[in-house]
Amino acid sequence: MSNTPSPNRGLVAVILAAGKGTRMQSDLPKVMHRVMGRAMVHWVVDAARAAGATKIVLVIGHGAELLRAEFAEANDVEFALQERQLGTGHAVMMAKANLTSVASNSDAFVLCGDGPLIRAETLSTLLSVHRTAGAAATLATSVIADPKGYGRIVRDANGALARIVEQKDASEAERQINEVNPSYYCFRADALFGALDRVGNTNASSEYYITDVFEILRKDGRIVAAVDAVPSEDVLSINDPTQLAEVDGILRARHATTRGVQRDLQNGAQR
Q1: Please, are residues 204 and 168 in contact by the beta-carbon 8 Å criterion?
Q2: Of 100, 111, 21, which is closest to residue 66 (Cα–Cα)?
Q3: What pLDDT sits at residue 22?
C-alpha cells in the first residue's frame, strides 16, 4: 500500500469514553463529570471537530445511556459499545463497524474522553505531520518533568519512533525517559484496523493496547511518526476529584486569558 499522502482523505475521530472511573467517587461515567460546566468529553469532541473531523465515534460502556442522551442531537456523533473493558486496542476495535465504509480513504484520530485540556491546534499539528510524512500511524508526544504513570516513547538511534512502552511494562532504563504518550493518535483507518487484528494481550495488564499498533506497522515497513507537540501543561488527564478540580481551574484560566486577548484586539481595532 502506498505511503503517499492524499489531499482528498477524510477525517474521523474515535473517542474512548467507556470507563467508569472508580476513583471519581461517583456513579457517573468518568467522562460525564463536568469541567467548566460541561461534561469533560465535550471538550475532546469540540477539539476533534475544530481540527476537521466530520464523524465522531464515542466508544461507550459504563453509563452508556447517559452518553447517548448527552449527544442525542449531535448529527456527527455515533456510538460503539464496549461491553467488557479489555484495553484501549479492544475499545477502538469496537468502532470498526462504524468506520468500515470510510476506512479505505480516511484518517482517524484516536483520543481519550478524559483529557479535556486537548487543543484543536495540537490535533492540527498532529494531522499535518501525519499526512506530510505519509505515515500509517502518528502520535503527538510531550516531554514532562515527572513521567510516572505514562507510557514512554522509545526512539531508535536515529531518533525515530521505535515503540511505546507502558509504565507497568517498562524497564528501569525506560522509566527514566521523559518523553511520554498523552494518547493523541492519528492513523490511516484501514491500517489501524488491520493492525488491531494482530494485537495480543501478553503484557502486565493482560490488555489489548492501541500502542502496540505502532510497532506492528513499523515492522511491516510502514511509516510511523512521533512529534513532540503536546504542551506539558496539557498532559494532565482526570482520574480523581482532585485532578478534576485542577483541570477545571486550568481551563478557566486559559479561557479567561483568551477572552482578555480578544478584548484587547477589539479595543485596538476600535481606536
Answers
A1: yes
A2: 21
A3: 80
Considering 23, 34, 198, 263, which one is annotated as catalytic? Answer: 23
Question: What is the spatial distance between Cα 242 and Cα 26, in angstroms, rounded to a whole number?
Answer: 13
Q: What percent of the chain has pLDDT over 70?
A: 92
Of 242, 118, 271, which Cα lies nearest the Cα of 184? 118
Q: Do residues 192 and 121 lie in contact, with contact meaning Cβ atoms separated by under 8 Å?
A: no
Amino acid letter, residue 182: P
Average pLDDT, the chain: 91
According to the model, what pLDDT value does residue 87 have? 95
SS3 of residue 14 by DSSP:
strand
Q: Could you give the C-alpha distances from 210 to 110, 121, 145, 146, 165, in angstroms and in order? A: 9, 23, 25, 23, 11
CATH of domain 10-270: 3.90.550.10
SS3 letters across 207-255: CCCCCHHHHHHHHCCCCEEEEECCCHHHCCCCCCHHHHHHHHHHHHHHH
Question: Helix (H, G, I), strand (E, B), or coil: what is residue 42?
Answer: helix
pTM across the whole model? 0.90
Cβ burial of 262 (10 Å; 0-12, 13-18, 19+) is exposed
Reply yes or no on whether 152 is catalytic: no
